[in-house]
Design a protein that fits this description.
Shape: globular
Number of strands: 0
Helix content: 55-70%
């Protein structure tokens, strides 16, 4: 892989802004999670549900604008293996976000900590990547935002099967159905984005 082409690609996709944004969200997740876990009036680490639900969502939303270039049709005309580049793009972003956020939840990781943060990161990225194929990069944030906010506001916590499968953003990491849903969303979203790419604003259709 040509380093110059790679540098141009990440620069054109707003990688510096993405990295800065993830860094800020990571710091907020660490400070917010620590503050909630240390409040005597709350339930210790179990009080970190807001961080577990919202930090991965916000980080995944930052990924949306990077899923398309300024001129997507022009980029597609270049002789590059775009399915591989798009797959690498999503996988690298997932690795960066998951690693960063998981570090903030290492204290009691099984109680709304590192494990749940990793699960929610995968699920939210899958939603954003899949939405980019249908709605384009500009609106890729919308389905994930609406879904997670709705579940956070009204979903059962904790939930028994099968509710844990659809209320996955607010479930403890011990809820197996929540992992199944999040991983499925990630695989479907990443695969569809890698194969189809984002919907273009000029045609409204997906191109490979």
């Amino acid at each position: 892989m040509n380093p110059r082409i790679l540098l141009l690609h990440v620069s054109a996709r707003g990688a510096p802004t993405f990295v800065i944004g993830v860094s800020v969200i990571t710091l907020l997740a660490w400070s917010g999670g620590t503050w909630l876990a240390d409040r005597p009036s709350l339930d210790g680490p179990a009080a970190r549900i807001p961080v577990v639900a919202l930090a991965p969502l916000l980080a995944a939303l930052l990924l949306g604008p990077t899923l398309a270039g300024a001129d997507e049709d022009l980029e597609r005309s270049t002789p590059l293996p775009w399915p591989l580049w798009r797959a690498g793009h999503v996988l690298l972003a997932a690795l960066v976000i998951t690693t960063a956020l998981s570090l903030t939840g290492l204290h009691v990781p099984t109680t709304f900590g590192a494990y749940a943060l990793a699960r929610n990161t995968l699920g939210c990225i899958g939603l954003v990547a899949g939405a980019a194929v249908l709605l384009g990069a500009r609106l890729a944030w919308l389905p994930a935002f609406l879904y997670v906010v709705a579940v956070y506001a009204a979903g059962p916590r904790p939930a028994a099967n099968p509710a844990a499968s659809w209320a996955w953003p607010i479930q403890p990491s011990s809820a197996s159905p929540s992992w199944g849903t999040a991983i499925t969303l990630f695989l479907l979203g990443a695969t569809s984005y890698a194969l189809c790419g984002p919907s273009t604003s000029t045609s409204g259709r997906q191109h490979s």
